[in-house]
Every structure is written in structure tokens, then in C-alpha cells.
Amino acid sequence: MANPAVFLDRDGTLIEEVAYATRPEDIRILGGVAKALAALAQAGYKLIVVTNQSAIARGMLTEEDLHRFHEALDDRLDLLGARVDAYYACPHHPDPGDTSRADLAVECDCRKPKPGLLLRAAEDFDIDLTASWLVGDTWRDIGAGQAAGVRTIKLPADAAHDEPQPPDAHPPTAEAASLAEAAGIILGAARQAPAAVPPAPAPVEAPEPRPAESDAEAPPAEPVEEAAPVIKEPYEEPAAPAPAAAVCARCGQEVATSDLARGAAETRDGFLLCPECLARQPRDGSDRLPDDTAGLLRSILLELRRLNRTQRTSSLTFLRLAAYIVQAGALFCGLVLGLAGEDRAMFIQIGIFLQLVVLALLLLERNS
After folding, report:
1. Which of 58, 232, 316, 319 is least surrounded by CB atoms within 10 angstroms?
2. Is residue 174 domain-shared with residue 255, that is, in the same domain?
3. Which domain holds residue 280?
4. Do 143 and 278 share a domain, yes or no?
5. Residue bearing the bigger pLDDT, 352 or 75
6. What was the pLDDT predicted at 233?
7. Which tens digits make up the pLDDT trace of 189-223?
8. Does 76 reside within a domain?
């Protein structure tokens, strides 16, 4: 049986819009995103991120950098009790003059507003496109969803990020102020779906004609007008009030200043959580294990990822070994030969030069 899915744009929909986000430090998950993703996943929707990443064609990051970026996003969503099933990214850019990789300067079928990413995911995950949705903040997202045959919800976007509505563009199925509101529309439409197609009425046999009781002609029967289909407004969750101080990173609700002052709400793992979400979020390093198997496996996976990152950063790389060797040469020239040698000035200059080489090697090792 085919699966329904919600296709999600990344920048401006899941995380804050940053021009060509390339580093995990650029990730800022929008309020209410985690709760919306968890609700959609619980309702049985596959969650597929579809994103244009022309920064790869422009030479601003590599495919490996993008993979690490999405791993970091997965880790942060996991801390908030949410997940996505897969990421599909288009690395191409059609303008060769604006790219540094000739192999990616092509007209492709996956760069939104073309539907290639959605169609590829539909084949991989056996997705029923007629039962699926796309949520995005640009007209490129809406165009891709409509070309793939899914229903669409448009979120607001700033003018610098989104282009004006194309003159031939069809309006989206709905509009929402946030992913949380969009999730309410999707779940509300799913609840209304069984009533949308009523069963066909059983055929009614015409009654036998009866003799008229009087000579008076019976009044003509009033024509029964066919009831127009009732279009129900999509279900919308009530908009959250504007936060006075801050909002919870998990549910997007307002965090009162009084809760912060008395410690009922606090920052956990780098995220501000309200009292209700804080009670469901175990402390980092606490002795209490998750009650469910999925939570336990998630904790083990996060710990393995953390250990892997620690081992990678603490291992002795070639660049660091070279820096140590050059550092020894710099100390020898600058201190030993510079103080005891005959041409002290020359050896001190060589030591300073070697010290600069050490700094350059360490910078290369840090950025590699």
C-alpha cells in the first residue's frame, strides 16, 4: 500500500533562512517545527525534505559538507523528539557563469520548481502523490509540488528570498503562517477525508400512482435542488500569541518570564524548553534511561555519533604531525642557533618564518 508523505522545503520552513547555509552553526530550528513533525509522523506521513542546494555548484560546499549539515540537523531534531525520513537535494545551477563546477552547470529535472526530487522520493518510498502534501515558503516550492500532483501549502517568505508570484502560477491549496499551522491543516484535511466522498444512495423505486381524491389538481412537487458540496475550511490550530520573552524550541509556545525566573523553564542541550516540554526531556547524562525501546536506541545512536566526532577531532592527522615537526625546527633555529650561532639574526628570522608555517598548518588541519 502506497504511503502518504509531506514534502518539506528546508530553509525558511524547517530552519531560519540564511543565505547559503553551509555550516552546522547556521542551523536555527524554527519554533513549533519539532512538534509539527512529530504530529505528522505519528499520523503516518513520510517526511521528505526537498531542497535546492546550488551552493554545491557554486563551490561553496561539497556533497560531504551537505551530508554533515543534515546529520547535524538530524541530531538537533532528535533532541527535540522529531525526525525526517530522508533528504533530497539538487546540487545543480543552470548558469555556467555563476558556477565553479562545470559538471553541475546543467539544466536538470530536479531543481525546483521542477518536480524531479519529489518524483524520485515517491519512487524510493512508494509514496501516493495524490494523498501527499508539500509545504514551502517560495513559489518554486509550490510549483514543484503542483507539477508532481500533490497538494501545496505556502508559508510566508521575505521578498529577498522569494520571487514574485509568476503570472501563470496557480494558487496553493492553502496558506499558513508556520509549519505548525500547516500541520494542523494537513491533519484536519485527513480527518475530513472519509466524509468527503459519501456513499452512493440506494435507488428509490417510484411509488404506484393513486387515484386523485378530488378534481383539484395536486400541487406540483417542489423541485429538489441538489445540495452544493460543502467546502469545509481546513482545520487550523489557534495561532500562538506573540511571545513576550521567548518561545519553546519544541512546541513553539510562549515561555513566560516568571517560568524562566523560577527555573520551571530552562535551556536544555542548547534549546529553550517550556515547563511541559522540559518535563518530557531527560537531562543530559542522567542515570534515567528512556522508557521505550525507540528512545533507548536513539540515545545510543546519539552517543555513538558524539564519540565518533570526538575520535575524529582528537586523532593525530598528517597536518598536525607536520606542524609538530616544523615547530621543533622553529624552536631549534630560534632558540638554539639564534642564541648560540654566529649569525643570530638570520636564524631568528628562520625561526619566525617556521613559526608562521606552523600556524598555517594548524589552520589547514582545523578546516579540513
Report:
1. 316
2. no
3. 243-291
4. no
5. 75
6. 47
7. 988 865 444 444 445 455 555 554 444 454 555 55
8. yes
Domain identity same for 59 and 117: yes
Length, in residues, of the chain: 368
Residues 82 and 128 in one domain: yes
pTM over 0.70: no
Tell me, yes or no, whether 287 and 341 share the same domain: no
Higher pLDDT, 260 or 316: 260
- Tell me, yes or no, whether 137 and 263 share the same domain: no
Residue 342 lies in a domain: yes
pLDDT band at 294 (very low <50, low <70, confident <90, very high): low
Do residues 23 and 61 both lie within one domain? yes
Q: Strands 271-273, 266-268: parallel, antiparallel or unpaired by DSSP?
A: antiparallel
Confidence class for position 176, pLDDT limits 50, 70, 90? very high
Task: Provide the number of structural domains found in the chain.
Answer: 3
CB 334 within 8 A of CB 358: no
What is the SS3 assignment for the chain?
Answer: CCECEEEECCECCCECCCCCCCCHHHCCECCCHHHHHHHHHHCCCEEEEEEECCCCCCCCCCHHHHHHHHHHHHHHHHHCCCCCCEEEEECCCCCHHHCCCHHHCCCCCCCCCCCHHHHHHHHHHCECHHHCEEEECCHHHHHHHHHHCCEEEECCCCCCCCCCCCCCCCCCCEECCCHHHHHHHHHHHHHHHHHHCCCCCCCCCCCCCCCCCCCCCCCCCCCCCCCCCCCCCCCCCCCCCCCCCEECCCCCCEECHHHHHCCCCEEECCEEECHHHHHHCCCCCCCCCCCCHHHHHHHHHHHHHHHHHHHHHHCCCHHHHHHHHHHHHHHHHHHHHHHHCCCHHHHHHHHHHHHHHHHHHHHHHHHC
CATH label of the domain that carries residue 173 = 3.40.50.1000
Question: Which tens digit of pLDDT belongs to each residue from 228-259?
Answer: 444 444 445 444 444 445 777 777 778 888 77
